[in-house]
Amino acid sequence: MRTHRIPISPGIPTLTASDTLQARLSDLVETFDLLGDWEERYRHVIDLGRGLAPLTDAERSEDNRVRGCASQVWLVTEAGPDRSLVFRGDSDAHIVRGLIALLLHLVSGLSPDEVAGFDAAAALDRLGLSGNLSSQRTNGLAAMAERIRRDARARSSGT
């Protein structure tokens, strides 16, 4: 069983690679349920984004840029132990950084197959965020999730 620890952001529990996607999502749902209204959740998402480690200038490359986002977004995919994937990301927009932190919390440390099956829209619905994001943010989040799944599929097939 994999047991390495994956720090994502202050305010999000440190993960072990053996955590399942559903367990991670359930923990986030519980936290968001405690927050109550949309304003509190929005502030929490922004706070999560503040804890992300920034990417280096070299990592803020065109190859790492996510297309389809209104804001500048970069995602880096790296191999972790036991064929797991570790994702890092950054954005120039506070709320988007928070959304990246949520996505990374859910998928970092999972196998490529687990990540490739990730349904970001369903996760946002469970968190109560989907109806409160602008269409631009929703489209950007979909672009980020698709990039994460694409990278996972590429790693799964060995390319």
Topology:
Layout: E1 5-6, E2 15-16, H1 21-35, H2 38-50, E3 73-79, E4 85-91, H3 94-107, H4 112-116, H5 120-127, H6 135-156
Antiparallel strand pairs: 1-2, 3-4
Helix pairs in contact: 1-3, 2-3, 3-6
Q: Can you give me a brief rundown of this structure?
A:
The chain is mainly alpha-helical. It has 6 helices and 4 strands.
- What is the rounded Rg? 14 Å
* Biggest sheet features: 2 strands, antiparallel
Q: Record the strand order, biggest sheet.
A: 1-2
- Unreliable residue runs: 1-7, 9-15
Number of structurally distinct domains: 1
SSE series: EEHHEEHHHH
Which term fits the overall shape?
globular
Task: Give me the CATH architecture, please.
Answer: Alpha-Beta Complex
Q: What fold name stands as the CATH topology?
A: Sufe protein. Chain: A
- How large is the count of helical segments? 6
What is the distance, rounded to the nearest whole angstrom, between the alpha carbons of the first and last residues? Answer: 25 Å
Q: Could you please describe the fold and organization of this structure?
A:
The chain has a single domain, classed as Sufe protein. Chain: A. Strands 1-2 form a two-stranded antiparallel sheet. Strands 3-4 form a two-stranded antiparallel ribbon. Helix 1 (21-35) runs antiparallel to helix 3 (94-107). A hairpin with a 5-residue loop joins strand 3 (73-79) and strand 4 (85-91). With 159 residues, it is mainly α. It has helices spanning 21-35, 38-50, 94-107, 112-116, 120-127, 135-156, and strands spanning 5-6, 15-16, 73-79, 85-91. The model is unreliable at 1-7 and 9-15 (pLDDT under 50).
